[in-house]
Design a protein that fits this description.
GO molecular function, one term: methyltransferase activity
Organism: Nonomuraea longicatena
Structural class: alpha/beta
Bound molecules: S-adenosylmethionine, thymidine-5'-phosphate, zinc ion
Domain Methyltransferase putative zinc binding: 7-66
Keywords: Methyltransferase, Transferase
Strand order of the largest sheet: 7-6-5-8-9-12-11
CATH class of the largest domain: Alpha Beta
Oligomer: single chain
Protein name: Class I SAM-dependent methyltransferase
């Protein structure tokens, strides 16, 4: 591929290595009869030849994605509720121990993390531009502004509330192409010893598992320790800790401090060395990943067609944003998958983005088990397998496509 763009971190040259084609907004579920005005963009991903950051070549305007009716509610998963309660406690006991500490979260969503901080009586503020999910957080007593975090809004908080000890963000920083503005905002808002902690899907896991569905409009960057370190240094920060997390198919929690204020942990050096040894950023590795993605698509489409032609009933489980990439790249519509079941009321009785598979409430699955269920929400597999044991007992089979296509 010869396509290129300008790096959003360092203004170097981003060279494309994977083209996932024309794609809809991953979190826009049209109603039946309202599919005409659907927005599409081109989903192409590349790596910066200068700073190594992996990123999309085309940016979707943020107001199209993060809006009043943004349908992703973080608290829909019990595993994630537990994860964020633990995360909050961790921060409270490690970083928020001084007098009157203050924490700011980017993308607090329905308050899944900050509700624990609030219960501990700690001063906090969530930034959440999607007003529907923000309302849920506010109803829990969490303090929220319905704004995008960026340089100007961060400075306004600094003026109003004083310096922050922690800026925290989960599954949000990688959604933000305007990194310079965010990191200048973090610089303005954090106290001298403050930290910026964020966790996002890890490029190393994505390449290892061929989990190309982690690539969609909202996931503008696919971070690694190598690229985050370089990014931090451009803005006066230093990568001082990394921790691999099992959630959402494999993430890394990065901690940035002001340059020279903390000694980087051993884990930082180890992850950087592993990325170097594995050749994670080598063009050959990324080209190999792209080839593996095409294989998964071919295998998955062949299997679904074979099952359809054999008269089997196939449905999907979890109308995830990730599955928009899979469905649209592979051309999976209602001819191959009868419906997708999902627990989110805001997605139910609508159609999946782009390929228009009907979304049904979760109980529909148990009411009449299909023969096969395509596991779109594979990152929640532990939670789903635990509650859907009856499906396999009744003879049903799961179709998985991460790390490769298999029936289990
Ligand atoms: N932190 C939650 C979690 O991990 O489940 C929510 C993640 S959700 C995928 C991303 C959230 O980031 C959305 O609720 C979106 O509205 C919000 N968001 C997007 N851009 C933002 C920005 N510049 N500042 C703050 N929040 C932002
Ligand atoms: P996520 O992978 O972005 O967290 O999205 C998960 C989607 O799957 C979300 O729409 C909620 C749905 N879901 C279910 O339908 N059942 C479940 O048990 C879980 C955990 C999620
Ligand atoms: Zn760059």
């Amino acid at each position: 591929m010869t396509e290129s763009s300008v790096c959003r971190v360092c203004e170097g040259t981003v060279r494309a290595f994977l083209d996932l084609g024309r794609q809809p907004l991953s979190d826009a579920f049209p109603r039946e009869g309202e599919t005409d005005g659907e927005f599409f963009y081109r989903l192409v991903v590349g790596a910066c030849a200068d700073c190594s950051m992996v990123q999309l070549l085309e940016e979707v305007p943020r107001e199209r994605m993060f809006r009043e009716d943004y349908p992703y509610y973080s608290s829909g998963s019990s595993v994630m509720r537990e994860h964020f309660a633990e995360t909050a406690k961790d921060l409270v006991y490690t970083e928020l121990t001084g007098g009157d500490p203050f924490i700011v979260e980017l993308g607090c969503n329905d308050g899944i993390m900050l509700e624990t901080v609030r219960a501990a009586g700690i001063r906090h503020l969530g930034f959440e531009p999607s007003s529907g999910v923000a309302r849920v957080a506010r109803d829990k007593g969490v303090r929220v502004v319905t704004e995008f975090f960026e340089e100007s809004t961060a400075k306004a908080v600094r003026a109003e509330d004083g310096p922050a000890d922690v800026i925290y963000s989960a599954n949000t920083f990688c959604h933000i192409p305007y990194v310079a503005s965010v990191l200048r905002g973090a610089d303005a808002l954090l106290g001298p010893d403050g930290v910026f902690v964020f966790e996002d899907p890890y490029l190393g896991d994505i390449v290892e598992k061929t989990s190309f569905d982690q690539i969609y409009d909202e996931h503008f960057f696919l971070f690694s320790a190598t690229s985050v370190k370089a990014m931090a240094e451009r803005f006066g920060f230093e990568l001082v800790d990394v921790r691999r997390l099992p959630v959402h198919g494999g993430e890394v929690r990065y901690t940035l401090a002001r340059a020279g204020r903390r000694v980087p942990s051993r884990a930082v050096g180890e992850l950087l060395a592993a990325e170097r040894d594995d050749g994670l950023h080598e063009p050959a590795t990324l080209a190999g990943f792209a080839a593996a993605v095409a294989r998964v698509r071919d295998d998955l489409v062949a299997l679904l067609r074979e099952l359809r032609d054999g008269g089997h009933r196939v449905v999907a489980y979890g109308a995830t944003a990730k599955s928009a990439t899979v469905a649209n790249y592979c051309g999976i519509g209602p001819d191959l998958v009868a419906y997708v079941c999902d627990t989110t009321p805001a997605k139910q009785h609508r159609l999946t983005p782009g390929t228009h598979i009907p979304v049904r409430p979760a109980h529909v699955f148990q009411d009449a088990y299909p023969d096969y269920a395509l596991l779109f929400a594979w990152n929640h597999s532990q939670e789903i397998m635990a509650k859907e044991q009856g499906f396999r007992e009744a003879g049903g089979r799961w179709i998985q496509y991460v790390p490769d296509v298999r029936v289990v």
